[in-house]
Amino acid sequence: MVIAILSILLICMAFSMIEEDMSWRDRLMVLGAIGVTMVVIAGSRSPYDTPDSDNYELMYYSVNSLDDLIREPSFVYLSYYLNTFGFGINALFFAYAIMSVPLRLDAICKLSPLPILTLSIYISYFYQLHDLMQMRTAVASSLFLFAIYFRAEKRFWPTLWCILIGFLFHYSALAGIIIFFFSNKELKRWQRIVLAAIVPLGLLFYFFGFDYSYLVPDELGGDRLAAYRELKEKGKEDDQSWVFYKHPVFLLNVLLYYGCLIYYRLLAKKYNYMSIMLKIMAFAFICMLTLSTLSAVLASRLHEYFAIVSIFLWTAAVYAFRPLNYGKIFLHCIIFIQCLANIFIYTLGWYNNHMK
């Protein structure tokens, strides 16, 4: 599996160097071939190849009724009917991959001027995190990308439907409703200053340990926040695993965020969705830094759900380089190192520890 991931990443990176010279049909052929490979990798993996896959196996075989209200409806229905027809856990892996990968590719084509480059960035981190580990989030985040596209195009109902359908795959997707407060209008100077202040203000919340979850009524999700708080108080979270300043991807995204704010006028001319992507990235930082006092796991999950927009910000960032291929080479170095780190931390690291 490791060889397969690195292979599709290197192929994607190679084609991204020449994609401006490729016809749209040729780009779609490359994206389609890589997409099929991604589905096969995600669907055929062993439950012991990646973290969480063995937990999915346990949950899959424990679903024996459609009345299960704890787990998301999509998972319950898929598990119940696949079990009924005698399929094993890989049928569930394939089912989620067949939904998430094509949706993701379509969203990338709509939101990115350089879709092959964007797919390279996605494979280096989020493919391993979502499609190979958090399958329910993979589908929900793909739908969230469509919600961003429809929101930027000022289409209310398609935006809402994408979020509500995503909720059926992962309950945290309902947080995506926040994008109704964001627009894709050009950012004024004062707005960029406010966005630049988000991370420092979030750090104040983080280091002072302020927990505002007590202020949220139960009817608005306060009961679920209380459940996360209880897990932390009982010591059932490993906080050290989720400390933000030990998370290199988070730190890279902070650098990316400020780089995009500094070069906003230049990048916004090249990338049409820069404004809304920056606002969503800012909210991702808010989730990580202000919710960590309540639950480091919840903070990280919501951060990663919203930080999916970083794949488009990285793509836009290459327009700050002249010639463009210099930016691509620089970005390729970052994503290749990132991919190797994720493989060693998640795939190989977990597998070796699990098999001891």
The gist of it:
The protein has 356 residues and is mostly helical.
Describe the structure.
The protein is mostly helical. Helices cover 71% and strands 0% of the residues. The protein is built from 17 helices and no strands. The longest helix has 32 residues, at 324-355. The chain is globular. Residues 351-356 have low confidence and may be disordered.
Features:
356 residues; mainly alpha; 71% helix; globular
Helical percentage: over 70%
Question: Strand-residue fraction?
Answer: under 5%
How far the N terminus sits from the C terminus, by CA atoms, comes to 19 Å
- Which structural class do the helices and strands define? mainly alpha
Backbone shape: globular
Topology:
Blueprint: H1 2-16, H2 24-44, H3 53-62, H4 73-84, H5 89-111, H6 115-124, H7 126-131, H8 135-152, H9 156-169, H10 189-208, H11 222-233, H12 248-262, H13 264-270, H14 274-291, H15 296-306, H16 310-317, H17 324-355
